[in-house]
Write a structure and sequence with these properties.
It is a single chain. By secondary structure, the protein is mainly α. It is about 60% helix and about 5% strand. It is built from 13 helices and five strands. The chain has a three-stranded antiparallel sheet with strand order 1-2-3, covered by helices on one side. Strands 4-5 form a two-stranded antiparallel sheet. Helix 1 packs across helix 2 and helix 11 runs antiparallel to helix 13. The longest helix is centred in the middle third of the chain and has 33 residues.
């Protein structure tokens, strides 16, 4: 059994203490003998208690090396700009900057990466052969999976542009949008009502944008990635490498080094898929972001509103979203592993505790 590092245990304990203290204040902890009444400030603070995700990291990719330099000058310039944009994204992610710095850099890389993908598809459609000088290898760390015994993130690599697009879109959704919510609501009780209204509008926009991006990955990108299973081009050249570059994607994620997880079956050892590439996991996060978007709306109106029945119905609706997220997390990945067992304990705790609070709020 894997042992947790002291730092990991301390972080989980700190989150548990904060959440449990707030739950105690709002009366979720069943201690009727104390006769404590829920305080509106405590309810508002917990409604604004958003989960902050770690920021994934990636490696540098030199696109002009992948496609070779025997190309038209303007094509080489576009590839060089794409490589430079990738380097800027790598640096900004490693520095753990705030969303307002991450968002424009990742967005710029996304635009250039999508342009490359469309160009390759158009060339393939027109019958042009795309030659690849060296097989690409796109590597990312997972910001969601439980770290190993040495407190190191799991790392995955794959030779397809679709994999790179999934990981970049996920980073844009989480590190570029959803992480804005806890930053903007870090001290909900000190914000006056007028400013809080503007902040709630912005936070809802960020969270719903993140949910929409995840749904786009599920519906439009992942089906392309899984369209041609078994055509692993990482070790091949020529046509195999070209197939990888066109983003039609082979077998999912190849973990790198000792951080990899594998599942042994009766026939072969199957490589586990990154959580960021599991449709059910992305669906769970999408439900969670939608729930959070309306949590802050309840926090805005709860203090002054006299229509408790309306607030109760909203709280029940948010609770349903969290329950849907938990149901999705309790499904298995393609290797038969429970998704909820793979996620970091802090996220598992957050998704499990919030429905209890919201049910309490809806009945109070």
């Amino acid at each position: 059994m894997r042992e947790k590092s002291p730092l990991s245990c301390f972080c989980e304990f700190s989150i548990a203490v904060r959440v449990c203290n707030l739950l105690f204040q709002v009366g979720v902890t069943p201690l009727p003998e104390l006769g404590e009444q829920p305080t509106m400030d405590a309810q508002r603070e917990l409604l604004c208690c958003m989960f902050t995700f770690d920021v994934p990291t990636t490696t540098h990719v030199c696109y002009e090396t992948i496609f070779g330099r025997d190309l038209a000058p303007h094509t080489i310039q576009h590839l060089q700009r794409l490589s430079m944009s990738n380097s800027q994204m790598k640096i900004i992610l490693e520095s753990h900057n705030q969303c307002r710095y991450i968002r424009p850099v990742v967005q710029d890389y996304l635009m250039r990466l999508c342009a490359l993908k469309q160009s390759l598809k158009r060339a393939q459609h027109d019958g042009y052969a795309v030659r690849v000088a060296s097989s690409p290898q796109f590597s990312w760390t997972s910001a969601l999976e439980e770290k190993d015994a040495f407190h190191v993130d799991h790392s995955y690599s794959n030779p397809t542009i679709s994999f790179q697009l999934v990981q970049t879109l996920f980073t844009f959704a989480v590190a570029g949008n959803a992480n804005d919510a806890p930053r903007m609501l870090w001290d909900a009780l000190s914000i006056d009502e007028k400013n809080f209204n503007d902040i709630v509008t912005e936070v809802k926009s960020r969270l719903l944008t993140a949910a929409g991006i995840l749904q786009y990955i599920i519906k439009d990108i992942l089906p392309q990635w899984k369209a041609r299973p078994g055509a692993d081009s990482a070790g091949g050249g020529g046509n195999a490498a070209a197939a990888a570059a066109t983003a039609a994607g082979p077998t999912p994620g190849r973990p790198r080094s000792t951080t990899a997880r594998t599942t042994t079956t009766s026939t072969a050892t199957r490589v586990s898929i990154p959580l960021e590439c599991c449709p059910k996991f992305l669906e769970a996060l999408s439900f969670m972001f939608e729930a959070q978007a309306y949590q802050v709306n309840v926090a805005l109106t709860a203090r002054n509103s006299t229509k408790k029945e309306v607030l109760a119905r909203i709280c029940l609706g948010i609770t349903k979203r969290y329950q849907q997220a938990l149901a999705a997390l309790n499904t298995t990945d393609p290797n038969g592993l429970l998704l909820i067992d793979r996620v970091r304990p802090s996220l598992r705790m957050y998704v499990s505790f919030l429905p209890s609070f919201l049910l309490c709020s809806s009945s109070s």
